[in-house]
Every structure is written in C-alpha cells, then in structure tokens.
Design the sequence.
C-alpha cells in the first residue's frame, strides 16, 4: 500500500470512529473526581450553568462560555459541536462533564 492511500484510510477510520462516538465506549463511566464542574458526581447542565461554571470546563474560556450561553437552550449536548458553537476538538474534551437537560413544561 502506498503511504498516501494508507493515510487516507487512516483518516477515514478516525472519522468513522468519531462519527459513531466509539471513543466514548472506552471512556470513563464517570468523569474524574477532580473536575471542577462536578459536585457529588453530577454532570454540569449546559442549559442552566453559569458563565463561571462553563469557564471551569477544560478548553472553555470566556469566549466559548459566552457563546454557549448565547445559543441556549440545547436539545442535546453534542449540539455544541454540530452547530459550530465550539470546535469538535473542544467538545471531545468536555463531553464527559456535561449534559443538556430539558425543561419540563
């Protein structure tokens, strides 16, 4: 196999793994206890979190935190990356720490 073809195949496999969210199947069942956003093992709800709580997430600074607040409410946490609110790489860093709860009407 040529190097170029091998690189293309590897990129395709990585894309498929990310698309199917395969890495999460091997991830922690619970985020590390040292995470600032955890309180007694509770995930941070991006629909109700404060600016300071969002900024405590890995890779989230003031700019991304403000964008997350601006585009609320979210139906699902992966909407952050799908709608371009934060980059996919940043979403992969925080996905184990967050949730998007729905309001009861």
Sequence:
């Amino acid at each position: 196999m040529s190097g170029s073809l091998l690189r293309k195949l590897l990129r395709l496999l990585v894309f498929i793994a990310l698309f199917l969210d395969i890495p999460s199947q091997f991830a922690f069942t619970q985020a590390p206890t040292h995470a600032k956003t955890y309180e007694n093992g509770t995930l941070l709800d991006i629909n109700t979190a404060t600016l300071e709580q969002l900024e405590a997430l890995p890779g989230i600074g003031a700019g991304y935190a403000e964008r997350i607040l601006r585009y609320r409410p979210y139906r699902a946490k992966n909407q952050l990356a799908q709608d371009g609110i934060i980059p996919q790489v940043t979403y992969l860093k925080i996905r184990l720490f967050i949730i998007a709860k729905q309001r009861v009407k």
Remarks:
- The CA atoms of residues 54 and 65 lie 5 Å apart.
- DSSP finds five helices and two strands in the chain.
- Confidence is low (pLDDT under 50) at residues 28-38.
